[in-house]
Amino acid sequence: MSQGPLMPKATAVWLVENTSLAFEQIADFCKLHPLEVKGIADGEVAAGIKGLDPITTGQLTRDEIEKAQKAPHYRLKVAVSKVKLPEVKRTTKGPRYTPLSRRQDRPNAILWLIRNHPELKDAQVIRLVGTTKATIQQIRERTHWNSASLQPMDPVTLGLCSQIDLDFEVQRAAKDRPAVLPTDGGAKLLPTEVSTAPAAAERDEEEEDLNADAVFAKLKGMSRIDEDDDEV
Question: What value does the CA radius of gyration of the chain take, rounded to a whole number of Å?
Answer without folding.
Answer: 46
